TrEMBL record:
It comes from Halococcus hamelinensis 100A6. This is Membrane-bound metal-dependent hydrolase. It comes from the Archaea. The chain crosses the membrane at residues 30-51, 87-105, 112-129. Keywords: Membrane, Transmembrane, Transmembrane helix. The lineage of its organism: Archaea, Methanobacteriati, Methanobacteriota, Stenosarchaea group, Halobacteria.
Amino acid sequence: MNSGEHFLLSVPVVGVVLAKLRDRYPSRRLGLLAAYGVGLGVLIDLDHFVLARLRVGDWRHTVDVLRNPMRVFTDQENLFEGTGGMASLRILSHVVVGGVLTWLWSRVSRPIAFLTGVVLYVHVLADLLRDNGIV
């Protein structure tokens, strides 16, 4: 899925999770948690740049985006040209990062760990559904 789709999917997911937490936190903290959850649902995909680096041996894909940031919004399908199939690596990376991040948050705050786990689970599920032509 592209970033816009992950954003649109993360908003209701975060909303449902935060609705369960609204009695525990003041509005300001819920706002911060909302920003964290939606940001996480989109920005987990930054790992794709590390994977591209591992696949091709240099940072050209990252440099290209830094030189022309609009490509992130206008040309997502071609951001990682020449890297070969990264689908399984991408999912693996999301699972590893998601598991570690959820575990780390569980040491600090169970509600934030829960939010992290749910947001990243939905992100990975959406990627798998798209990768397999289901949606």
